Amino acid sequence: MAEPWEDDELDGPVRKFMYVNRRAPYGTIYALESLEVVLIAAAFEQDVSLVFMDDGVYQIKKEQNTDAIGVKNFSPTYRALEGYDVEKLYVEKESLESRGLTTDDLIVPVQVVEKDQLAELMEEQEVILSF
Amino acid sequence: MKLSVLVNEGPYQHQSADSAIQFTKAALAKGHEIYRVFFYHDGVNNGTRFAVPPQDDRNITHEWSSLAKEHGLDLVVCIAAAQRRGILDENEAKRQGKDGDNIAEGFRISGLGQLIEAGIQSDRLVIFGD
Q: Could you give the number of structural domains in chain A?
């Protein structure tokens, strides 16, 4: 059965969606469930961008190992985003630097932006979901 | 204005569950249209009819149910988040082989696509979370 959101008439408008990831990947479920939203949303062919800021930058840190906490390491899924045409990934420069990280520490290619630039990008959005 | 509301936190635990319903009431009173209310993360716990808060306290689920009845609100609980947290409707209970369902009146369980669609169709998506 076709779901309502698969209706052809909903194909029309393309809106600018931004997903803002602000929390560490483990400790709470926000990061994982945010990623689930992004993957589902990709099917809607909207203009999607992702932001990683505050502890959210840890979500895309290389070499995550969750064995000791008994939680699934879902970080490889971020590498699949490109296949869903989710290619606009922004990382806030201040968040990255204050945690002693560089783009070499990240599992996906990102664009590093300063706080002010990020504010401008947010200003351009039509829907912002913050997790 | 056509609005949708996203509720990301559970009832009683977090103010945002109350704020979401207060906002929705205020928006309706001002004549705005509520296109959809979507419940995600622990927000899905707003949709269980099995919660029994103390009698001298507010009953958030009842408030949503009666608001839905009065205004024909579309209250949608995310299926993936609901399955993790044990919120089931009759169909899901059957499908998962569970011995009962607990979804409250006026709520329905559906996919995350309903959230994205609400973001596309509404003038504003207003989020209540931590």
A: 1
User: How many angstroms separate the CA atoms of B1 and B123, rounded?
Assistant: 6
What pLDDT sits at residue A2? 52
- CATH code, domain carrying A97: 3.40.1260.10
Nearest Cα of chain A lies from the Cα of B110 at a distance, in angstroms, of 9
Domains of chain B: 2-128 (3.40.1260.10)
**B16-35 residues touching A, CB cutoff 8 A:** none
Domain with A91 in it: 16-130
Residues of A with CB under 8 A from a CB of B: 3-6, 10, 13, 15, 17, 29-30, 33, 36-37, 40-41, 43-44, 46, 126-127, 129-131
Q: Complex ipTM, two decimals?
A: 0.90
Q: Where are the alpha helices (DSSP H) in chain B?
A: 15-29, 60-71, 79-85, 90-95, 113-121
Mean pLDDT throughout B89-93? 96
